[in-house]
């Protein structure tokens, strides 16, 4: 459909490359060609748009064969408008100057013309063909007849139509007839399947018999080999016993010889050990004697050294004690002399001084007294004695 635009009372048309546009103004052809674009006045313009591209027309129709069986034919016709001027003159391809849509239905008219023409030629060829032949070669026959009939049809070139190709996709009978036609083939296929099943079962039975015979032969061969195996095992066991007895005898002789060698070696080792022990004992005795003598000599020397050291220490102690006693005596003599001198200087008479000195010596020689218990009677007597002296 052409694209028409409105502008202030004018119209602008823009066509597609596959559309042939014819523009008449006041009866005069102004524009003619595909893919045009121009301005026009709608009140004085007559426009036609003829499609020039290839178009597919699908058709399905029913026909009857020579044996009065209905069949359906499905076909497709490819056509194009080869002469747009003739087609525009024979069919109404005029378009509305405001919308660009066709005023009529030209493509439907072309479809009806092509469908009826093709159906006429298909019916003609199928009416003289039986159903079986039509199902086998009917598609090719119908396609060729329709193509040749459309090519020879004088009305199509007079309308500017060119048929490009004809294709017949299917030619099928009614469902009941189709099922009836399939039955013999199905039965034959079923018979072939049954025959194949029987043959397979026969082959299976034959193979099972062969397998059973092979199993029986295998069992017989296995029993024979088991018998040979038992005999061979007895022979092997007997041979193993003989070889085991011979091996035991050899082992016994070897064990006896080994025991003798071990006994001799043990005796020789015992003799060597006894000799070595005696030599070691002798060496130990001699070493012990030497060590004892050395220890005795060392002990004697140590004792002599200890005695000398003890004597020297006793001498030193005696000298120290004597020196201490002398110094102590001198100190005491000096202390007593000083004590006497102090008492003499204090005016104490000699008798009193001697009594005090005697009491001091007596107190020094008295035993140690840890505690003294004074009874009330003794304390009263002392106080009584001290009272007259205090009064005096």
Low-pLDDT residue spans: none
Report the average pLDDT across residues. 83
Shape: elongated
- Beta strand count: 9
Alpha-carbon distance between the two ends: 178 Å
Q: What's the main sheet like?
A: 3 strands, antiparallel
Physical arrangement of strands within the biggest beta sheet: 1-2-5
Helix content: 55-70%
DSSP helix count? 7
> How large a portion of the residues is in β-strands, by DSSP E?
15-25%
H and E string:
EEEEEEEEHHHHEHHH
What structural class do you assign from the helix and strand content?
Answer: alpha+beta
Question: Cα-atom Rg, whole angstroms?
Answer: 81 Å
Structure description:
With 392 residues, the chain is α+β, with helices and mostly antiparallel strands. 66% of the residues lie in helices and 18% in strands. Helix 2 crosses helix 3 (131-152). The chain is elongated, with a radius of gyration of 81 Å. The protein starts with a strand and ends with a helix. The relative contact order is 0.05.
């Amino acid at each position: 459909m052409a694209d028409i635009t409105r502008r202030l009372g004018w119209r602008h048309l823009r066509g597609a490359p596959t559309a042939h546009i014819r523009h008449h103004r006041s009866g005069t052809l102004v524009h003619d060609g595909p893919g045009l674009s121009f301005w026009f006045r709608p009140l004085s313009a007559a426009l036609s748009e003829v499609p020039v591209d290839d178009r597919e027309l699908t058709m399905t129709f029913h026909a009857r064969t020579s044996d009065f069986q209905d069949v359906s034919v499905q076909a497709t016709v490819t056509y194009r408008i080869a002469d747009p001027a003739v087609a525009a003159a024979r069919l109404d391809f005029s378009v509305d100057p405001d919308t660009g849509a066709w005023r009529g239905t030209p493509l439907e008219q072309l479809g009806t013309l092509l469908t009826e023409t093709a159906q006429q030629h298909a019916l003609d060829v199928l009416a003289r063909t039986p159903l079986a032949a039509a199902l086998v070669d009917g598609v090719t026959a119908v396609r060729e007849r329709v193509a040749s009939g459309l090519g020879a049809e004088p009305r199509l070139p007079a309308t500017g139509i060119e048929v490009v190709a004809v294709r017949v996709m299917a030619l099928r009978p009614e469902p009941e007839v189709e099922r009836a036609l399939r039955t013999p083939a199905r039965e034959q296929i079923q018979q072939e399947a049954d025959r194949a099943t029987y043959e397979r079962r026969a082959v299976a039975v034959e193979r099972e018999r062969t397998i059973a015979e092979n199993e029986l032969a295998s069992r017989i061969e296995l029993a024979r080999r088991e018998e040979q195996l038992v005999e061979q095992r007895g022979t092997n066991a007997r041979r193993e016993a003989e070889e085991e007895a011979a091996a035991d005898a050899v082992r016994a002789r070897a064990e006896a010889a080994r025991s003798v060698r071990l006994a001799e070696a043990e005796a020789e080792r015992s003799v060597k050990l006894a000799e070595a022990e005696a030599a070691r004992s002798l060496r130990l005795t001699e070493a012990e004697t030497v060590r004892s003598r050395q220890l005795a000599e060392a002990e004697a020397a140590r004792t002599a050294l200890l005695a000398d050291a003890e004597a020297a220490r006793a001498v030193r102690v005696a000298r120290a004690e004597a020196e201490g006693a002398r110094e102590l005596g001198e100190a005491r003599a000096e202390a007593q002399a000083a004590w006497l001198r102090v008492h003499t200087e204090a005016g104490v008479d000699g008798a009193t001084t001697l009594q005090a000195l005697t009491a001091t010596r007596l107190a020094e020689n008295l035993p140690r007294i840890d505690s003294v218990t004074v009874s009330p009677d003794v304390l009263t007597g002392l106080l009584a004695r001290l009272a007259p002296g205090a009064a005096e």
